[in-house]
Amino acid sequence: MEFVGRPLAGGMLHNAHLAAIEDCVEVKAAIAYAQQGVDKILLFDDCLRKGKKLTFYGRVDGTCPIDLRVLNWFLRRNSPNAICKLVPHWLHAKVIWWVGQGAYIGSANLTDRAWFKNYEAGIYLTHEELEQFGLILELEDFFDGLEQNSFPLDDEEYERQVKIDKRRAELLKKLKDIQQEYEDGHWKLKDRTTPITVAATRKTKDKRLVAFKQEWGQTLQLIRSVGARVSLDENRPDWIASDVPQGVQGDQFLHAYYYQRVRPNSEKNAYLREFNKHRNNPEAALSAALAWWKGGAYEHEHEEGTIYQSAPLLRALFGKGRITTLDEQEWVSALTNIYAFGDHASKVSNGYLGLGTDPGGAAKGVALAHMLWTTKTINGMSAPEMFDFVIWGKGNVAERIWTASHEREFKLHHIGTNILGEVVGWARPTEYPPRNSRTSKALCALGNDVEVVV
């Protein structure tokens, strides 16, 4: 945790941004007032230059709190990686979330003065601290609330803002009357009832759950289709036996395709480039990838180890009636064989895990798995019991994944939809093939419009 707002000591928001932007997944910002700097908008330009998706929530009313040059910036770029949403009346927050790295919560608006000159005050919390204090869910709920109560910037809204800004300049003495006239005549701003409630309404939560279940089901069916194609004799490499579950075959095909064909040089957002290339003909992209997979002219030691060692181990340890009998070492062995868990653990700091100056690597996954072994949910479930609930509980699997990753009573720190989606897949690969962010990126690279951050 770091105090942000020490201009004489260099502890400014700009410094926190520079430290977080490189390795974050995406950026979400809710800032009431924004102005363009001398020649650029630092936060926004950095996001595009570094290939980070940006979603900005700004305030809209008759006072034009968002500089017209800022609105124009979004419209001119017309990029799916730069999204501007406008929140009527009530937005006064100053929150920036570099997802996967940390978040700033404080007083600074998006202006040069706030970032470089003013005595602002705020706190920057690392991703580990957000996890530790249960604030990931709080941030998700906050931005979901803004999403529910905002509307997207478009040309028509920009023109409205241009006209009102001009009138404000010409009729400054009558500003109050103009503001009232503008807001009363704008159907999106007419309702001045605050959307803020003490707790999220059941209706809002239900909408989010329905959207999640729909997206999850559609993408899972797409993964099933890929697995069915991959497991056909004409597409299956000689080194894979015919009795390997389709879900396992499909998962490892997507794994190899992503790391060896999409981003062999570790280019983080290569899947977006491939998506744009294949979006008009995903069938052609899949056919070409299957031919490459069948040919076998690539390194497949990792995939072979997963298919014949990790997958059977996880299926056995996560079996119905077996998972709640795991001892600590079996639990650690299981978790460290889950791709999404290892990927998450690699981003957790050594200090948080008690590793000191240890370089990390596999040690991080082991340390985090041991830490989770002694952790319980608010409703008293151990980590294996929570996994058992998600994998083998009653009702809809997607709904249980949502519950365990979004409801505080069931949530375990460091365990989200990415990990749970993969866990269910390894336990029940015939019914539910594994899914994590790497799976989604591979599907996206093949031209499918799927949600990547799951």
Describe it for me?
- The mean pLDDT is 88.
- The protein has 21 helices and 8 strands.
- It folds into 2 domains: 2-196, Endonuclease Chain A (Endonuclease, Chain A); 203-445, no CATH class.
- The relative contact order is 0.10.
- It has 454 residues and is an alpha+beta fold.
- An 8-stranded mixed β-sheet has the order 1-7-6-5-2-3-4-8, sandwiched between helices.
Question: Outline of this structure?
Answer:
The protein is an alpha+beta fold and 454 residues long. The chain is built from 21 helices and eight strands.
Keywords:
454 residues, alpha+beta, Endonuclease, Chain A, 2 domains, 8-stranded mixed β-sheet, 21 helices, 8 strands, 52% helix, globular
User: What share of the residues does DSSP label as strand, in percent?
Assistant: 5-15%
Q: Span from first to last CA? A: 26 Å
Structural class: alpha+beta
The average pLDDT score comes to: 88
- What overall form do the CA principal axes indicate? globular
Quickly count the domains. Answer: 2
Strand order of the largest sheet: 1-7-6-5-2-3-4-8
Element string (H = helix, E = strand): EHEHEHEEEHEHHEHHHHHHHHHHHHHHH
Tell me the Rg in angstroms: 24 Å
Count of alpha/pi helices? 21
| Poorly predicted residue ranges | none
Largest sheet: 8 strands, mixed
Helix content: 40-55%
Q: Give the total of beta strands.
A: 8
InterPro entries: PLD-like_dom
Protein name: Phospholipase D-like domain-containing protein
Organism: Luteimonas kalidii
Domain Phospholipase D-like: 83-130
